[in-house]
Each structure stands twice: as C-alpha cells, then as structure tokens.
Specification:
Length: about 270
C-alpha cells in the first residue's frame, strides 16, 4: 500500500525526477575496438592514424586491430589510450604473424559549442609510438584534427562539416626524415530517425615528402584528393553502437582503408 502511494504521488514523482536530473552522469567507459583493412600500392609511404608504414617495392595488405580504452568524461571531453597490433602480406611474401606494433594515447574535446552562427569546434589529437619496426624506422607520430560542425536543426541530425588534419612523424634514426601531411576537407552528415548516421568528407591531402638513407630512397611530395565515408548506428543518447568507414587517399596511387568499429561498453549512459 505504501509503495503504491509512493509511486503514484505527483509530488514524490517530481522530486525523484528532479533528483535524477541533478545527479551527475556516469562517464561512458568502453573499448573502442576497431579493425582496419588497408591496401597499399607498390613504392608507397603510408602514414596511418595508428602507425607508420615504410615504402616497399611491392603491393601490400595490412590488417590492423586497435582497442583503446576510452572514457567519455563528459558529453564534450573523451580521453583514450591503448595498443595496436597488425598482420601484413605483400605480393612477394605471405601473411606475417600478428605482432604488437604501437601504443597510442589521445583526447577528443568540443572546445566550442554551437551558438547561433558559431559552429561546434572539436579537437582530436592522438600520439602514437611504434613498438616494433624495421631497423632504424622506430617512430613517434602525432595526428591532430580540428573540425567545425554546423548543425542545421535543433536535434543535430543533419549538418555541415569543415576541418583540417595534420600528421607529423619523427623517426628515431637521423637517416630518415618524413615531412608533415596536411588534409583540408569539407563534408556533411545526416541521421535518420532510426539512428543510422551517414557522414561524408571530401578533401585535399598535401605531403611534404620523405627521405631514407640520406637520399638513397625518397618519397616525392604531392597534393592529391582524399575522400571518406562513415556509416554508424547510434543509440538514443548518441552513443555509437557499431559502424564502418571507407577512406581512399591518392598518393598518387590510391590507398584504400576499410574500418569496422564495434565498441565494447563497460558503462554506457
């Protein structure tokens, strides 16, 4: 009887609702598990999001597994860190064994939220350190993305994107030098009532070139297009449930990367 009165009393119901609204949200905690399959043409230097692939004279395929532990501290700030492993093959060799190749740490922060004509500004920065690599090619890299997101409706289900991505690589050996890579892009997104979200970005990539063995091997500077499409399934609180991304970057031969994301949540609001 008392339980029934408590449940149906309007005053108590409002108090409980106010208490729930005032209580701080628990941070989301999850492994942002993703699997990336990359195809590389011969004699191509690939500077990836999680690792650094040196030029080889044969076409190659690389399968990379990455599982950073991610904590969404608030709706605007996330931090993450983890390790990456990979297997690879070339036209001249069979698939290698799975090896741990790098670790990474980073953050994702909305430093400005949309207000009128001012878009949301997001900064994503990842520091990666290789663990195993060819002799003299151990490296540290940083990739920083600054993206502007202008939502066209109150629910942010459709909007416009613009941004830039800077990737820098520092090779331990003085016999190798890799210049930075910059990508500038425009794009947009649309989210259906079913919570499927499609994003697209079209841009231009500029690479300053690289040198190995004091000029014995060189990678030419270039400016070429790049395109990326993301398809994600979100929940009602805008948490990603799973997704896929396809990215093609011309160098000038195309590098193609397909990524599958399957977050494993320990805590999800």
């Amino acid at each position: 009887m008392l339980a029934g009165l408590t449940v149906f009393s309007p005053g108590n119901a409002r108090a409980e609702e106010e208490e729930d609204e005032g209580a701080p949200k628990r941070p989301n905690i999850y492994l942002d598990f993703n699997t990336a399959y990359t195809t590389l043409p011969p004699n191509t230097l690939a500077i990836g999001f999680r690792n650094f692939v040196s030029p080889i004279p044969a076409a190659a395929q690389v399968l990379t597994l990455n599982a950073p532990l991610t904590v969404d501290l608030t709706d605007r700030i996330s931090v993450y860190g983890g390790v990456s492993s990979s297997v690879s093959r070339t036209d001249l060799s069979s698939w290698s064994s799975m090896t741990l190749d790098s670790w990474n740490i980073g953050f994702n922060a909305d430093i400005i939220q949309q207000d009128g004509a001012i878009p949301t500004v997001t900064v994503i920065s990842t520091l990666t350190r290789s663990v195993t690599s060819a002799p003299g090619l151990a490296s540290t890299s940083n990739q920083t993305v600054v993206e502007l997101d202008y939502a066209l409706d109150d629910d942010a289900t459709r909007g416009l994107l613009a941004g830039g991505r800077l990737t820098s690589v520092w090779v331990d050996s003085g016999l190798a030098k890799v210049e930075p890579t910059f990508v500038g892009y425009l794009g947009g997104y649309y989210q259906w009532p079913s919570n499927w979200k499609l994003s697209g970005r079209l841009g231009v990539q500029t690479f300053g070139g690289a040198e190995f063995g004091r000029g014995l091997i060189t990678a030419r500077a270039f400016t070429q297009p790049t395109v990326r499409f993301d398809l994600d399934r979100m929940d009602d609180n805008d948490n990603r449930l799973y997704g896929a991304a396809l990215e093609v970057a011309w160098t000038p031969a195309p590098i193609v990367q397909l990524t599958l994301r399957t977050p494993i949540y320990a805590v999800r609001n």
